[in-house]
Here is the input.
Amino acid sequence: MVALLQIIQEQRTQIQQLKDEIARLKGHKTRPLIKPSTLEPPTPAAGAADSSRLDAPKRAKTAELIIHEEVPIAPANIPEGSKRNGCQTYVVQDLHLKPHNTRYVLERWRTPDGRELIGELPAAVRDGGHFGPVLKAIVLYQHHQQQVPQPRILTMLHDLGVDISSGQLNRLLQENHAAFHAEKEQLLAAGLAVSGYIHVDDTVARHQGRNGYTTHIGNEYFAWFASTESRSRLNFLQLLRGQAEDYWLTEEAFAWMQEQKLAPTIVQRLQAAAARTFADEAAWRQHLEGLGIVDERHQRIASEGALLGSVLAHGLRRDLVIVSDDAGQFDVWLHALCWVHAERNINKLVPVSDRQRADLEAVRGELWQLYADLKAYRLQPDPTHKATLAARFDALCQRPTCFALLRQALRRLQHNKGELLLVLERPDIPLHNNLSEQDIRDFVTKRKISGGTRSALGRRCRDTFLSLHKTCRKLGLSFWDYLRDRLAGLSQIPPLASLVRQRAADKAATRQAGFDNSQPMPAIATV
Here is the structure.
């Protein structure tokens, strides 16, 4: 009877989803059925009142402003014999948006020996195509930070009196950005070198009318995006190794092949061969075919191992933890799962009886408490609590219930125990993947506004400037100041990769100086 009620409930839910889809296609309003996760408190909406901020003392809003102009204003009709009695100030912030056109007159001189000399344009102007660094910075800032489409930027420039065509605007957005691309690639190497963990996620990215994927790699120090046609594990490993193209057969590579249950005869064939490094994919494929390894699965697993060997050979930390939402392509090396995503499998269940409802609420209550205690453990690790927390996890996953779907969800939770409880061995890693979800949100917004990309150069520029923009935000830098610095050739802002390394070093020093294991750990419940 309970099974029939469960089937009826599932059909009812599916029918409602189909009705909502029909209503959406017809342009009618739909009734959302998605329930938010309760493991983490919701992020307050922009502009929402914050009691802590309301109680904070008011700051002098204009005390730190740079005053560019001061205008004295005397009262009208001052009676004769009046005396000046001080003054009061009133600060007005404004912007001056107006064209500023410069004609460079390059003098030509002829030397006594017949040579001809001519004045040189400033470096910031030479590659601008008759457009200055501030205008280029405005265009890039509007498009990549503010998500403004090209036609609207063009309209704004025309309204301001700038003589520019749509083709010239497109070139400003896509061409002559080699320095930006190089700085973006340096971010990944620096971020992986200084980080104990990284967040990863991907999302659909349309390109040339076809679905592709954009992968995010980052943490609190940096953000790095790359768009490709695939979301496979091979693709992820290729992204991790950065600009390298080689393949390495190392001990870790062979260990990976054995872990993935590659046929022992295939592994032995690769181990018996003398070659261990290969310059590029073509040389690697030729080696596999020369050994008679032509099966698609065999080639894929062997390639994953060789790519992992290459990534480690190029400096990837062997203790690096990859935090993801349980997507299979990210399950390499040390892998930790997001608790928020794991909890969704339980949160979305719909009970059909009072007993099922009671079981579900009891499981969710225990899960929330365990999650809260794991957060407390991260703040103050205590090895004596490891066994208690692990036992509570096992008891939760083995809890008896009449709810069949809940039992399945708990079995899946138990299957992922090692990745969910990795925090007990590595309290420095986060318990969720929210950072990656938030970082990739800007890309999703841009996709909704602009659809997809049409050229490889446009797709590369989108990934580059999104990476630089998000990294500037994490480092506390103004993206506007960064663009002006780079485009004007000022070099007052250090390379972002150097700032990432410095931020990581500062945080490590602060953590080491401030760590005090004598502080009591918050109370943790026992089973």
